[in-house]
Amino acid sequence: MTTADHAPASATHGWVDAWLTAFEAAASDPVILLTGERLLNRADIGQVHINHGTAKTTLTMPNAARPHQPCLTVSPLQSHEWERIYQAIAATGEHADVIAAGRLPDTITDNADLIRIAPGDITFTCSCRPDPGICPHSAAVGYRVAQHVRANPGVLLTLRGGSTKELRTMVRTRKPTDPAPAPGPEQNRTGTDAHHAFGRFDARPTRPRPARARTTQTVPPPLLDGLRSDPPAPGPTAQALRLLTRDSAARASALLAGRPLPAGDDPVQDAARLLADPAHRRYHEHAAEQLGLSTLQMRDLALAHEYGGAAGVEVALWPLAADTEVLAHAEAAIQPHRPAQLASLVSQDNQLTDEAARIQLRLGSDSLWYPFTDWHGTWRPAPGPSDNPATAYKAARRALRDR
Fold first, then answer.
1. CA nearest neighbour of 137 among 31, 26, 47, 45
2. Alpha helices in 175-237 (DSSP H)
3. pLDDT-based confidence at 116, cuts 50/70/90?
4. Could you give the C-alpha distances from 238 to 47, 233, 379, in angstroms and in order?
5. Whole-prediction pTM value?
6. Is 222 exposed, middle or buried (0-12, 13-18, 19+ CB in 10 A)?
7. What are the Cα distances from residue 278, in Å, to 24, 142, 159, 166, 273?
């Protein structure tokens, strides 16, 4: 089988979010994930073959002689687990009717057993490395699977060892039966008629009402948990509401703990702060569209905030003024660590660029040196800012080796 069951399905967000959350948590390497996502547009990716528990393809890099063969292996659910899921889904008449019509609604993803994929349940392999592990090629496969899930949510069922066809069959056989109709007026009934029943109620003896035992009030679930569609325009989307709610909770926790709150009213810096949280990766595309940036630019700014906070975003956005003596001191400090010490070193504004080594250092307003590395003509933030330019330079070289 080369693709999942071709049942009619609506393009949904819940199924895609379920897969991306599990896949990115299993990968746990934001740099490789970003690289893999870029390969979707740069590399030649063949048809993704999705079977029970596996998703594999061939991927050819530009100017490469031979293709790579990345593969994702997902632990499938056992037959008794599918039986429990089918019963839970069939217990809701609404689900049964929609599934019988050939669609898979977002609300099915509320069944945690269906989408719960632990990080250890996904294994990454590729011909580019001798041992299992995430690589840009297998990361690209994960994002290509997300595209398939968006068009046909049944792909996720196939990966977990089930099928849309079997789900429809099982749900149809387990659909709750309609309640028995109420007896008609022609049927004989026994009991007390209404006139005598109300007479007995009025003649009942009065007794003191016993004190009602105090019961513990249950806290209703958060309203956003039940929100399945965006509020009417021009209000924020459901995704934006969830992000803002989590950010408000984080700010409240900071206030209670006496920690300083983030300052500044620049929308780009504030978006980078919000998206630096790994749980908010799914909002990168939406934020980039609102700010007029590309998705890759937005992700690089989120990395800049993750590595250096607001000052890290500042040096990633625009050049700053810097003292020439400070720049000269930094040139002397990094000289012993340069792999090609005779190559040119460009000094401009607050930036020192070693093009031969594909490294750039930028002096921030907080007097820290922020490392950047060249990625196909784009300077990408690297972890490890330091007040010592030599330390920051070595951090950039380490990021290049680990890429």
1. 45
2. 194-202
3. low
4. 33, 11, 33
5. 0.43
6. exposed
7. 9, 17, 24, 35, 11
pLDDT digits (tens, 9 = 90+) for 214-246: 444 444 445 555 555 666 665 666 666 666 676
**Given the structure tokens 């950047």, which residue do they identify?**
372
For residue 214 the two structure tokens come to 């105090």
Residue showing tokens 């048809």: 47
How far is CA 7 from each of CA 165, 167, 331, rounded to the nearest angstrom? 8, 11, 63
Q: What is the number of H-type helices and E-type strands within the chain?
A: 15, 11
DSSP string over 264-284:
---HHHHHHHHHTSGGGGGGH
Phi, psi (degrees; rounded to nearest 5) at 56: -140, 160
Tokens representing residue 369 in the block: 């040196």
**Tokens representing residue 119 in the block:** 């990080």
Residue matched to tokens 């330079």? 393
From CA 312, how far away is CA 331, in angstroms rounded?
A: 21
Q: Is-contact 89 111, C-beta < 8 A?
A: yes
